[in-house]
Amino acid sequence: VTSVIFLASLSEYDMYLQEDSRKNRAEESLQLFQTILRYPWFKKASIILFLNKRDLFEEKFPKSDISNYFPAYKGPPGDIEGGKKFMTKLYQDAHDDVTEDKTRSLFIHLTCATDTKNIRLVFNAVRSTVINTFMVENGLL
Q1: What is the bridge-based pairing of β-strands 106-110 and 3-9?
Q2: What is the pLDDT of residue 83?
Q3: Which helix (DSSP H) or strand (DSSP E) does residue 32 occupy?
Q4: CA pair distance 113, 72, nearest whole angstrom
Q5: What's the rounded Cα separation, in Å, for the pair 46 and 121?
Q6: What pLDDT shows up at residue 44?
Q7: pLDDT, tens digit, for every residue of 45-61?
Q8: Which residues are CB-neighbours of 47 under 8 A, at least 6 positions away?
Q9: Is pLDDT of 69 > 80?
Q10: What is the pLDDT at residue 47?
Q11: Strand partners of residue 47
């Protein structure tokens, strides 16, 4: 396995699971992310993380205080860029906490699936990453 693609919703920080109304969706996503990273098959794979629904996050963030759900957030309420950095750091930290081989790469992309230009750009970057990793691992670069 060269790469793992993981998709998470950026905008679900204030939502709960339908099957368990006490479990925050973003926390569940972070736990699943770490579980996948621990699998032995993926120990050396680069990780490509899509934090999707950027548009919904930007719309919601000024109205729904993230610190009510994630008390570790210390930025000002409504600071969209600060909120994006916080959410990105949660996944970066989750990756770093379970990654033994510190050479494993994590590529994070904030996306909006309905923005076709953005998605095209991101998928081109992902394709380049996968091809480059493959070439390096096989001594072609």
Answers
A1: unpaired
A2: 97
A3: helix 25-38
A4: 28
A5: 19
A6: 85
A7: 889 999 999 999 999 99
A8: 3, 4, 6, 37, 95, 104, 105, 106, 107
A9: yes
A10: 92
A11: 4, 106
Paired tokens of 121: 């750009």
Q: Report CA-CA distances (Å) from 60 to 54, 77, 104, 109, 138.
A: 10, 12, 33, 19, 45
Kindly state the helix (H) or strand (E) to which residue 6 belongs, with its residue range: strand 3-9
Which two tokens mark 15? 């939502």
What confidence tens digit (pLDDT) does each residue in 13-45 have? 999 999 999 999 999 999 999 999 999 999 888
Helix axes 80-98, 25-38, angle to 10 degrees: 30
Per-residue buried b or exposed e for 18-48, using 16+ beta carbons within 10 Å of the residue's own CB: eeeeeebbbbbbbeebeeebeeeeeeebbbb
Question: How many residues does the structure list for the chain?
Answer: 141
90 token code pair: 């949660």
